[in-house]
Amino acid sequence: MKIDKEISHPIHPQHRLKLEYTEIPFNCDGCKEAGIGYKYSCKRCEFDLHKTCGAAPPTITHPFYRKCDFQLYYQPPGREMRICDACRKDVLGFIYHCKRCGFDLHPCCANLPQVLDDGEHNLYLCLKLSSSCHRCGGKGAGWCYRSQCKSYNLHVSCVKELLVESWQAMYLNVDKNKVREMQTRIPSLKGTLKNHHHVHRSGKGGGKVSKCCEMAGGAVRIIVSAILGDPTALIAAVVGGFMSK
Question: Where is the Phorbol-ester/DAG-type domain (predicted)?
Fold first, then answer.
């Protein structure tokens, strides 16, 4: 797929936007969500768009909502507050909305890969959790990524919250003890799967779970890249690395 190095956009008509890469977190002026990696930017106006938001097509479909036709809106339609059905966060800017069914998706959420695969590990995007989220401990609504053996679930919303907290700690010089505290809130993927394997080591299917441990050990960090709107974001490996230690 061809990526334009420079674009014009209706919400910033005064200047063209240039594609650039940054390892410094930014706030997208389209969807109002955090971003990192590739973005379309006007340095003169300090205006930024996720690459996904800048190149968002006017209409899309999604495999989770096969009866829906989503249309891109630059502002949330209607008077009531809208919530993204993927991450359960408030809609503050760009949104894909289905008039018929009422579903809403942030552009970056709509663009999340169904399977995250870095060559060794697989995580699967799911409409609902199969077990409690390993960050919040709940089974609330919202999409999640799930390990192949289904023993590790992580809300898309929880990863977003963790990213914001991590960035605030890194860029606002928060106490290092606070950073360490945040880094222990999500049980490590490897540890969780190994414990799961230990409990079931004498039971049927233990070998399958063991294989899952090996495959999913470091995969959680690529969730971070996908949610940021840029699967190539190198900084995501740093931000998300502690999750897979």
Answer: 14-68
